[in-house]
Amino acid sequence: MTTRAQRSFIVVGLLLSGWLLSACSPSAEKLQRDERSPSRTQAAAISPDGQLSFVATAEHGLMLFDLSTDERKHNWQQDEDGISQIRAVALAADKSVAVAASRETIALWDTSSGEVRGYWRLEEAGIRDVAVSSQGRHLIIGRSDGVVVVFEPETGRRLEFLGHSERINSVDISANGRYVISGADDHMSLLWDTGSGQVLQRFPGDGRIALVRFNPDGSTAFTASAQTAHIWHLTSAEKISELRHRSRHKSFLSADFSADGRYLVTGSPSRHVEVWRVDDGERLSSSQVKGREDDYPPRAAVIAVAFIDGSDEVVSENSAGFGERWRLQGILENQAR
């Protein structure tokens, strides 16, 4: 147990840490905070345009929210069809389908009608991450045995990508379903073709790769380990920038590019929502989400983020069970001048 003095020291340290971070970069203005669950959110995904949010909770199952109206569109109960303890969720770039995965089971839903597109069970190895292309034509499944599976629900075609040697942590697919980027414990991010499984580019890291993301047009990608985070040009495999932060170790759980590809928003285990300039990796904004009132110290990992297209706002979902909306207060416009 900690003493009162120790608790005071911890609180002062947390406040000082937050002050130092905010002193370096302006904070976004928090516009809204909505509770998704009375306890915790297991996993979350936000559509690239910031209009739909898909969250998995133990109490209320899987919920799809329309962020433009703040209405809940659908509520799918996890246990009804044998899918529970959700590990990963994803939304297609065109917002047509949502996918959720437990350790062995995957479910696909139509976001308009709410109807189930299908359930599948994988017994070879545990599922670590999932991604889905537009119209649900391709499901991408990253597994604990280092294999990435491409599955086409309509045709039943299945391809196993064996380019990694260790556990898969993150996968993403281009909107048209042609390309996948995957990151693993083998310190590698690989860009490869879903038709042939051929590796097109290799992006080495200095630790296990925890997160990978395409930009909207598929020309660049973000890769992050615990030590460094980079943005790459996918055709040339040249490094565009490295995110410039002062932490010796900095983890990222979520990321999304702006529609024009000029900016990146990230979410971290330390409650931070941060905006970065792609060209040079400069941090433009840093804000912190709140945990639950009874948490000490506060806990709220930022597990999904996105820009809202056509605005200066970003949205986030955190593990404490809340969704937030933030205004960047002219930060992006100032950078454009």
From TrEMBL:
The keyword Repeat applies. Keywords: Repeat, WD repeat. It comes from the Bacteria. Pfam families: WD40. WD repeats lie at residues 161-202, 245-286. This is Translation initiation factor beta propellor-like domain-containing protein.
